[in-house]
Amino acid sequence: MQRRLWLLSAWLGLAAPALAQELTLRTVQQSGSLVKYAPDAGQHRPGLCLEMLRAVQRVDPGLRFSGLDRQMPLRRVERLLSEGQVDVVFCLLKSPEREKQWRYAAVPLYSIRHVVAQRAGDERDFETLAELAASSHHKPVLVMRGTALARRLMEADVAIAQVASEREALQMLMLGRADAVYGQDINLQRHVGDAGLASKVRFGRTIFHEESQFVALRADLPPAHEERLTHALRRLERDGTLRLLAEKYR
């Protein structure tokens, strides 16, 4: 028993300096997604991904993130990651194309559902992507530019018009320029609420797809750095922090 305690003490003595050692990972904020990053919204709701990043820093104070003063559109974020100019990006979806360019931490951050938003008076329900594709030949479906969701619709032969933000998409929907907005439930719900459109917009019954957001890692990030970040994320998963933060933004 004494030998076991000595070995445990020795292991902790070796592990503690490793965890205490400072490590700075380069990152960037994604612009145009208020659910993820909302630097002007105040401390109460600064963005789900920013809060998750800060939670990682709380459980591992030696782990730092630089570059949070920079905001970039999604395509620029993707390019920086694929070129190795940033080390990590919080909250990106997986896709075969993306997984060829970078890796992902093993712990899912939160899940999103693909849904359709329509004008309140539009009683049609699209139950499949095939039905959405048929309707899109009259008016294209609005979707965020350059996203995995846009690529998914194109693969299903849905005619789309790509826009810069959910806010712009909802404005076009209200003007009758489109009949459907395809997006992430958590994002669309936020923008509908912020714009006071709860009585003018309805969400279809169908969940077309459900998937998780992850921390993306540059392809050649050292394994030790990935392990340290993953260790912090697992602690947040186990104690319920990731779940509580996701619920806060729904």
TrEMBL record:
Keywords: Signal. SUPFAM superfamilies: Periplasmic binding protein-like II (SSF53850). SMART domains: PBPb. InterPro entries: Solute-binding_3/MltF_N. It comes from the Bacteria. Residues 33-250 form the Solute-binding protein family 3/N-terminal domain. This is ABC-type amino acid transport substrate-binding protein.
